[in-house]
Design a protein that fits this description.
The chain crosses the membrane at residues 16-33, 45-65, 96-120, 153-172, 179-199, 219-246, 258-282, 311-329, 350-369, 389-409, 430-452, 472-494. It is found in: Membrane. With 506 residues, the chain is mainly alpha-helical. It folds into 2 domains: 15-437, Amino acid/polyamine transporter I (Up-down Bundle), CATH 1.20.1740; 452-506, no CATH class. It contains 19 helices and no strands. It is globular. It starts with 14 loop residues before the first helix and ends in a 9-residue tail after the last helix. The relative contact order is 0.18.
């Protein structure tokens, strides 16, 4: 195929607009809301280290593969996958990557928009001084009050979906590109201002210590699974968003250096967000492990106690809303592009309809916090929790695993080589080997371990109180069992998706 044509949806003006757009997709609630609170929950430094390893060994190789697939396919992820599968004469099962990705996009955006709505509502609350000099119970009541009020949640969820659809209907260049080129620089400026504020008014040394001093005794298998899932979520991998953006990428741009820049910026923002949030938390003697409420209870309360907090608190939530907005755009783009290609309808029609479906799905997440809080889709998990868990911990890692295996085993070597267009063949081979063997095994081990009940292979090690298996993640029978299962599992996937007669010539 080696499709030299442009995508019918348009092309980025240059390599930098791709970088901005992909960074806009990557930097979102995952960095500012989720990363600090899971770092807090899973004990700080050791978790950060595992997360960084996941980005390097899994995130970056998969992102390179996803961009390459998009640029070679030059269509929406679903249709790019169809084209790539037929070019590689691979089995039809690989097309699952495109479909599962679109579904994941629907599910993620449906709950993502609800949380983004919270941050919109907090811009208003902060700016109007709702938190100024209140005590912590009042801050807690504010958040609980918001969650208990479905109509308020619906209003903000609806506003956020309108903002998102409003950008995407205007197209790749006039809509996405022009919004992102304003939004992203603004976002960085806001972040720098907030770190300056945290450093001057907060306790930055405790924050650095908390984030970078690794205590491995706290590292559970669950923490490793969460770190892996989060590395997919934060880099927007495994669901086609990056593939769609890759399909608008200029042919001559280097994929490897571009991806390193995007992953580097995303990681930087996550760490900087921690450095903006934790100093304020520690300065006020609060706990970093407050869970999802960290950003919506602990932070507003602390801002409310500090000089200039009303202003800087509002700025903080504007930053969060901008970050969420640029990510949401990329969540709805793959399905929109597919609908335009499939039904030959205008972008406005396609995107509006998809937006309405996602908005409706989001009602389930809105009600998870109030009227339907007792309704569980998975054991102990509301609709909101289920969508979050299923996407971040199941669908994205599975999508990433399939992407790595497709480029590693499904696609022809020389097609991957040509598309990557790397000057250094040694580096290409390094990436290729990591993608074929290291990345899939790492994903599968963590994935299978995460889904297996604790101590599946040795029940005696189970600590009845904590529910954890032994002390160490590694070298337990469960871990070794996981490795064996992982390798078998990968073998089965590759065998069953490949056509038996796959020749070497193209
Ligand atoms: N990367 C985004 C974040 O960290 O908030 C979330 C996300 C966006 C996930 C787009 C997946 C995606 F396709």
């Amino acid at each position: 195929m080696a499709n030299n044509n442009e995508s019918i949806h348009g092309s980025w003006r240059n390599r930098w607009t791709f970088i901005l757009a992909a960074t806009g997709s990557a930097v979102g609630l995952g960095n500012i809301w989720k990363f600090p609170y899971i770092t807090g929950e899973y004990g700080g430094g050791a978790f950060v280290l595992v997360y960084l390893m996941c980005i390097a060994l899994v995130g970056i190789p998969v992102m390179m593969a996803e961009v390459a697939m998009g640029r070679r396919g030059r269509q929406s992820p679903i249709n790019s996958m169809k084209a790539l599968v037929s070019e590689a004469k691979a089995g039809p099962g690989w097309k699952l990557i495109g479909w599962m990705g679109a579904l994941a996009g629907f599910l993620i955006l449906s709950f993502y928009s609800v949380v983004a709505g919270w941050s919109l509502s907090y811009v208003l609350k902060m700016a109007t001084g709702v938190f100024t000099e209140v005590d912590q119970t009042v801050a807690g009541d504010q958040f609980n009050g918001l969650l208990a009020d479905p109509s308020m949640l619906m209003v903000w969820h609806t506003i956020f979906m309108i903002l998102t659809v409003g950008v995407v209907i205007r197209g790749v260049n006039k809509g996405i590109e022009s919004t992102i080129t304003v939004l992203m620089p603004l976002l960085f400026v806001l972040l720098v201002i907030l770190i300056g504020y945290g450093a001057s008014k907060g306790d930055i040394m405790s924050a650095v210590d908390f984030m970078f001093a690794a205590d491995f005794s706290k590292l559970s298998m669950e923490a490793v699974l969460v770190a892996l899932g989060h590395s997919f979520f934060t880099l927007s991998l495994g669901m086609g968003a990056i593939m769609a953006y890759g399909s608008y990428m200029p042919r001559n741009a280097s994929i490897a250096s571009t991806v390193f820049t995007v992953a580097g910026l995303d990681t930087l923002v996550a760490l900087l967000a921690g450095l903006a949030i934790f100093p304020i938390v520690f300065a006020n003697g609060l706990e970093p492990s407050a869970g999802p409420g960290l950003m919506f209870v602990t932070l507003p309360f602390t801002f409310g106690q500090m000089p200039g907090g009303q202003f800087f608190g509002a700025l903080f939530f504007i930053l969060v809303a901008f970050a969420a907005w640029s990510s949401a755009i990329s969540l709805i783009e793959p399905a929109t592009a597919w609908a335009v290609e499939r039904f030959k309808v205008s972008r406005a029609k396609a995107c509006t309809l998809i937006g309405v479906i996602i908005w409706a799905l989001g009602i389930g997440s809105v009600l998870s916090f109030n009227d339907w809080s007792e309704f569980h889709l998975l054991p102990g998990k509301t609709i909101f929790d289920t969508f979050d868990f299923m996407t971040a911990n199941v669908m994205l890692p599975l999508g990433g695993l399939l992407i790595a295996l497709f480029v590693g085993f499904g696609m022809k070597y020389h097609h991957a080589y040509n598309e990557m267009n790397m000057k250094n063949a040694g580096l290409f081979n390094l990436w290729y080997i990591v993608l074929r063997f290291v990345t899939p095994v790492a994903i599968a081990i963590v994935f299978i371990n995460g889904l297996l009940p604790e101590c599946s292979f040795n029940a005696e090690l189970l600590n009845a109180e904590t529910g954890e298996c032994g002390n160490s993640v590694f070298m337990t029978p469960r871990f070794i069992g996981g490795v064996i299962l992982a390798v078998t599992y990968i073998g089965i996937i590759v065998k069953s998706l490949q056509k038996p007669s796959r020749g070497l010539s193209s």
